[in-house]
Amino acid sequence: MTFLFLYTEIAEYVIACCNELTKHGEVHIVRWPVNKEAPFQFHVNEKIKLYSKTDYDLEQLSQLVKSINPDIIVCSGWIDKDYLKISKTYFKKTPTIMTCDTHWRGDFKQRLAMIISRFTLLNIFSHAWVPGQIQKQYVLNLGFKENNIETGFYSCDLDYFESVYQSQKAQKQNHFPKRFLYVGRYYEFKGIKELWQAFIELQTEQSNEWELWCLGVGDIEPINHPKIKHFGFVQPKDLANYTAQTGVFILPSRFEPWGVVVHEFAASGFPLLLSNQVGAKEQFLHEGKNGFTFKSKNVNDIKQALKNIITTEESDLVAMSDYSNKLSKTISPKSWVESLLKMARKP
After folding, report:
1. b/e code 89-104 from CB counts within 10 Å (16+ = b)
2. Nearest-10 Cα torsion for 313, 200, 202, 321
3. Exposure class string for 52-69: b at 16+ Cβ within 10 A, else e
4. Is 345:73 a contact under the CB 8 Å cutoff?
5. In total, how many domains does the chain have?
């Protein structure tokens, strides 16, 4: 088969899934430029062809797609008008799949989209592919039929992060690292300022050994504190240097449709601290068993979540680590491919 992805920004985990997909055919990916805050370096096999969207106008893109002659088209949402026009051309001729990671909120904008989609999206896309149940509810409300919707759209490179877990497991069982780890961009919507404030307040209120390590870049200046360390953007292949020295992953986002990074650190065997706005919590966090949730933007709630970890015995943190790794196996590049092939077979 020939698979075509009309993508916005791709990341390493997308390539991991597509590498698995090449067992079933050739993969073509048209994508937007790499984000300067996440300059991933991609390692693709010879059956994956990458194209930069900026090299093509609509007519050139149409000719490219025609030459590819795809058996199935996967499109990143409805943000790119050229992608929509291409998908509409192939509607009812080949499966056209819309991806969506937006939560169902039920606000006016989404209720308006429910009406408009009957005349737009449902005449462009035959299927919808979403990460989880919150997003599934949205596309159901947009009018997609249940049997034309698949979940599990996002997966980390499970084999790689499983190898990280296995290689560091014994070391952490012997001595669990007393360091929280944040991996993400330095933006307001990531809740990083509230995390820093909560961590610093906790240091003044309760003496403890724990540090906070932060990996990422953005428009927020890194805060200066003796127990908070900043390492900038780190390529996925270099993460193991940091996971070996840290113990608990935290993501305090004010807004996070899913968060593949949660899957990555669950697979790496990290207890998780996640805000209630992180979509991936539904799949990879069982409250009290492998971590805790907290209210986004709430410094006191973040502080309590940090306290919950600090007061947990090392042996229990190791058990939480194992439980995270177990939950991570519920989604994989293999299950991602199975979902895609299932849609390819549906009328």
Report:
1. ebeeebbbbbbbbbbb
2. -20
3. ebeebeeeebeebbeebe
4. no
5. 2
Indicate the residue type of 68.
Answer: I
Residues 163 and 252 in one domain: yes
| 165, two tokens | 């877990």
pLDDT more than 70, % of the chain: 97
Same structural domain, 68 and 104: yes
Backbone angles phi, psi at 176, to 5 degrees: -75, 125
150: which strand partners? 129
pLDDT at 19: 95
Taking the CA atoms of residue 132, residue 143, residue 277 and residue 42 in that order, the dihedral angle to the nearest 10 degrees is 60
Q: Which domain holds residue 225?
A: 158-328
| Residue 122: CATH number of its domain | 3.40.50.2000
Tell me the pLDDT tens digit for each residue of 207-216. 899 999 999 9
Q: Are 317 and 168 found together in one domain? A: yes
Same domain for 92 and 25, yes or no, is yes
Pairing of strands 272-275, 149-150: unpaired
Is-contact 47 26, C-beta < 8 A?
yes
pLDDT at 346: 66
Contacts of 313 (CB under 8 A, 6+ apart): none
